[in-house]
């Protein structure tokens, strides 16, 4: 940038890919808070299960200095909507052409299969190419079971997924599509 008096400043954006899904998670957290306040649904982000090894006390506060993951986490969000169990995860990718299946851990795939088997509603919210999609867990499992690919093509996500719109006050409109994939009759609820 050129400023008056010929002062030059350069701007460098540091990108931390480890937290690229945090913006999406923040939007989902805000959406879920809105849904709870409006008494529409009870959806919560599950805490990561950790075991505490060492705690220090600083300024009358407990500070965890050493911990470990107690168990593998399943999916990030779960709760109730219109009497149905709902569980989902938020995923982001920088890839423009496909969603890498390595973004879904094997224990998460096993868990998705279990939720489907027990009649719950399960899906992924995927951020890709500047858009956000809800993709039914059934479609993800079907793709994995019928393909040898290590990634889901963007065209498949566009075809099978539902593009989510964002509203500043209400957040992401994902429940609209939970009604569809869950076979929930809106007139009865």
Q: Secondary-structure element sequence?
A: EEHEEEEEEHEEHEHEEEH
- Total number of helices: 5
Which strand order spans the largest sheet, edge to edge or round the barrel? Answer: 3-6-7-9-10-12
CATH architecture classification: 3-Layer(aba) Sandwich
CATH topology: Trna Endonuclease, Chain: A, domain 1
Query: Class by helix and strand content?
Result: alpha+beta
Radius of gyration: 20 Å
Sketch the major β-sheet.
Answer: 6 strands, mixed
Task: Please identify the top-level CATH class.
Answer: Alpha Beta
Describe the structure.
About 30% of the residues lie in helices and about 35% in strands. With about 190 residues, it is of the alpha+beta class. The chain has one domain (about 10-180): 3-Layer(aba) Sandwich (Trna Endonuclease, Chain: A, domain 1), CATH 3.40.1350. The strands form five sheets. A six-stranded mixed β-sheet has the order 3-6-7-9-10-12, sandwiched between helices. Strand 6 (about 75-80) and strand 7 form a beta hairpin. The model is unreliable at about 10-20 (pLDDT under 50).
Topology, element by element:
Blueprint: E1 2-3, E2 7-8, H1 22-37, E3 42-45, E4 50-58, E5 61-69, E6 77-81, E7 84-92, E8 98-100, H2 106-117, E9 121-128, E10 131-136, H3 137-146, E11 151-153, H4 154-160, E12 162-163, E13 166-167, E14 171-172, H5 175-181
Parallel strand pairs: 7-9
Antiparallel strand pairs: 1-2, 3-6, 4-5, 6-7, 8-11, 9-10, 10-12, 13-14
């Amino acid at each position: 940038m050129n400023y008056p008096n010929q002062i030059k400043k350069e701007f460098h954006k540091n990108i931390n890919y480890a937290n690229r899904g945090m913006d999406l998670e923040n939007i989902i957290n805000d959406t879920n808070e809105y849904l709870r306040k409006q008494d529409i649904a009870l959806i919560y982000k599950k805490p990561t299960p950790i075991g505490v090894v060492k705690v220090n006390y600083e300024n009358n506060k407990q500070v965890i200095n050493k911990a470990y993951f107690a168990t593998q986490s399943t999916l990030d969000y779960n709760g109730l909507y219109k009497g149905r169990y709902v569980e989902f995860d938020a995923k982001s990718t920088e890839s423009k052409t496909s969603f890498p299946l390595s973004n879904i851990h094997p224990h998460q795939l096993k868990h998705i299969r279990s939720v489907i088997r027990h009649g719950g509603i399960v899906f992924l919210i995927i951020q890709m190419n500047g858009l956000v999609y809800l993709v039914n867990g059934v479609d993800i499992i079907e793709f994995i079971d019928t393909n040898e690919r290590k990634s889901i093509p963007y065209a498949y996500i566009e075809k099978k997924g539902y593009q989510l719109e964002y509203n500043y006050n209400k957040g992401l409109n994902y429940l609209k599509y939970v009604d569809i994939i869950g076979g929930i009759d809106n007139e009865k609820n």
